[in-house]
Amino acid sequence: MPVTAITSIGLVVMWSSGFIGAELGTREAPVDTLLMWRFIAAAVLLGGGRLLFRRRRVSLRAVSEQTAIGALSQGGYLGGIVWAVGLGVPSGTAALIAALQPLAAGALAGRLLGETVSARQWTGLAIGLGGVALVVQGDLYGTSAVTPWAYGLPFAAMAALLAASFLERRARSPLAPVDAIPLHCLVSAVLFAGVALVGGHAAPPSGGGFWFAVAWTVLLSTVGGYGFYWLSMRRSGVTRTSALMYLTPPTTSVWAYAMFGTAPGVVALVGMAVCVLGVAAATGCPGRSARVPPEPEAARREVVP
């Protein structure tokens, strides 16, 4: 199986696990408690692994760039999504709002990165969004009482991840994911520890369910999800990587059925098929103008640890 296909499948499966992890964790503890301990554990695990394998030191410029990228991609994105779920926004609805990212990415990629989005890709993005809406239609028409402003949090999260994606593509000192993600986790650990300490929520609950949720989010969502995300960004560019996000709500539905017994309805199943169609159109073999501009030789060498 081609590396690009493995990266795409890994991204969709692992990224989808984050929505389930948010639901698992917020059942056990406040949002800031979950995020604080998630990123402390991730920073220790990944930072320790980096020291064990004696990775080379990174430049001050790379540290400053990755600090901003990490604050946006993990602090901003996850903070918004998990906080929204914790306030009662259904995970499917949060996933739908986050899935607006491909359209925003397509609109901005040409101006900021020189990635021309073809008519076929625009069509695929539009079809995919329609499929996502079908998948989460039950959430959209639910009657649960949720604070209205909570629905703005996934929008802010989507914007933060999109900004991080563009910053990463324009980084002057790009790093391989094995070097960048530990730094992202350290930045997020400091950020959420500060929030939890100020709010008086730093102490973790004693139940095993909380630590299961932490382990879930660290191994699947952080190591797996973000690892595949940045690999896909390097290999496929912003538009094609973002289009894969349309598959996260259907995959989240499968996770939810396996974990919580929540079976998707017929309309949701149709939506899943539409999502696959849209992503196939958006990520199919692009024409000459839709290709990702070649990266400098130094950046290409960074992709493989």
Summarize the helices and strands and which ones pair or pack.
Elements: H1 3-26, H2 31-52, H3 60-86, H4 91-98, H5 101-113, H6 119-135, H7 137-140, H8 152-169, H9 177-199, H10 208-243, H11 248-260, H12 266-283, H13 297-302
Helix pairs in contact: 1-3, 1-4, 1-10, 1-11, 2-9, 2-10, 3-8, 3-9, 4-8, 4-11, 5-8, 5-10, 6-12, 9-10, 10-12
Describe this structure in words.
It contains 13 helices and no strands. The chain has helices at 3-26, 31-52, 60-86, 91-98, 101-113, 119-135, 137-140, 152-169, 177-199, 208-243, 248-260, 266-283, 297-302. The chain is globular and about 45 Å long.
Summarize model confidence as the mean pLDDT: 79
User: What is the percent of helical residues?
Assistant: over 70%
Radius of gyration equals 19 Å
Low-confidence runs of at least 5 consecutive residues: 285-305
Shape: globular
Strand content: under 5%
